Task: structure prediction
Amino acid sequence: MDVLFWQLVHLLIRDGYRIARMSERGDEIWLESGHWRSPTLVRLVRADFDWSRSLRLDIEYTWQFIRQMNGRKIGKGGRVVNVYVMAYPPVDDWEFLIAEPLPLSGAAGGAFHTLLIHSGNTGEMLPRLEEMTGSPLRPAPLVGEADPFAVAERLKHEVLTEWRRQREEERRIFEYGKPVFTRLLIIVQVAMFLILEWSGGSTDPSVLIRYGAKFNPLIEMGEWWRFLTPMFLHIGFLHLLTNTFALYYLGWTVERLYGSLRFLLIYTTAGFFGTLASFLFTPSISAGASGAIFGLFGALLYFGTVYRHLFFRTMGMNVISLIVVNLLFGLLVPGIDNAGHIGGLIGGFLAAGAVHLPKRAAWRRQMKALAAAALLAAAGLWAGFR
Result:
């Protein structure tokens, strides 16, 4: 049964499952599927319970642990499959404990299933596990005089090697680039703020217009550079302070994920789209890096479409919550250019799709994102200048 346990882990990994966590002894392994429409979380446990009471307590503990996640790892229609691999089942009645799946709060349509595989029912249970996981699970029989202990150790070693490789790969994803342009952009926007203050004040409309703020009449007269220059100007110290902190934390993360050149392209494209949206929907003077910063949120959302489980396991819910809170804040508080924020969010997402993530080219997807960005920009410029 040790061999079967590690064979199941090995087969699930081969079919695209990733190890989410593992106990120190390796007798409990959680795996998550890559199927975002109907995700599956599998818990495999190699244990022998003499009495059903121990089995019941472990099932209840695991069910409560999953319920505390509020469905974040499972999602709509997903499932948790809790699998025990045993040499023999408990000596008293235990079948009623696993007869029906348990509901999952926070995961609409989700269910918590338990399977108990022992030496006498593998032929019956493995097809059920195949159906629940969507993976072909046909463990190879031991050949000839093969030592089962040696086979189990070899499979365990292969699984642990793969797990270390996955963890190293994930670490490298978050450490691809260095935040060079993030620092430079912060220096530029602080320097521009000081220049505005020296020239008469960052809240003076005439000063803002002179240094490149978004001013629709001048854009209509052909001063096209005003689609880019507003992202370096800020109106008042508080505006500068909030955007500088946002740029520092978001820019640091996005530049390390995408690399410096991709980051700069995402940032400037998002800034352009933010100003374009403001030009179309807001007649007042505006300035600030908010549109470009929302574009960094868009880049993180795009990262979540490529690495869904990694995204939600690390920063996903925080990113989505911050986007929602900031957009609601913009709707409720007067004077905030929400059109620029939404435009920047869309521009950053499309720009991230066009450049994609390092070392993961997806040309068809990139071409679609590039075409969508070009079409949207062209439509916006046509609507603004007609």
Observations:
- The first helix runs from residue 2 to 14.
- The CA atoms of residues 50 and 90 lie 5 Å apart.
- The chain has 14 helices and six strands.
- The chain has a mean pLDDT of 87.
